[in-house]
Amino acid sequence: MDVNVSRQEPVGLVGRLNGRHHRTGLNLFLVIVVAHWAEHLTQAYQIWVLGWPVKQSRGVLGQFYPWLVSSEWLHYGYALVMLVGLWLLRSGFTGRSRAWWLVAFGIQFFHHVEHLLLFVQAQAGVVFFGQAVPTSLVQLVAPRVELHLFYNTAVFLPMIVAMVLHLRPNSTEAEQATCTCAPRPVLAVAGRS
Question: Which pairs from 128-137 meet CB under 8 Å and 24+ separation?
Fold first, then answer.
């Protein structure tokens, strides 16, 4: 006789988000990430394929709402949403997938610090590092468009690896899972096969 593995439902909003609603949370988070990617890729296309000047290359939303691209509120807000999303969804991951998810979180944490530096400079009306415009640390050696395309890639790739591993857990990871993202193993009752 086969017995399905049953787990007690995690409690609280974050517990449920990392339990039965983990797949939904991951899917919504992925939609936000992909939409942001589309903006960056559109901007890259505008610069490197269409030959537009960087100031006119504003992605999709920026073409209709130019103030969005020039506002550090949007950039910092997205960096914060990414950081919070990666943090809130982390406990649904186990084993290898959790390690990759935490790599994405660590990179996003630094990306967030970079945006925080830009945000503080823009809000205070001051610039750091002797530059003419608000500048982040790594922006001292890499152009902003390329840098943020790199950051988004560096966060996205381990995030995707984590999601793939999460949907294909090994037996130990499946036993530790608190969510229903991956199929549950069926355990045989002792003495039966």
Answer: 134/72
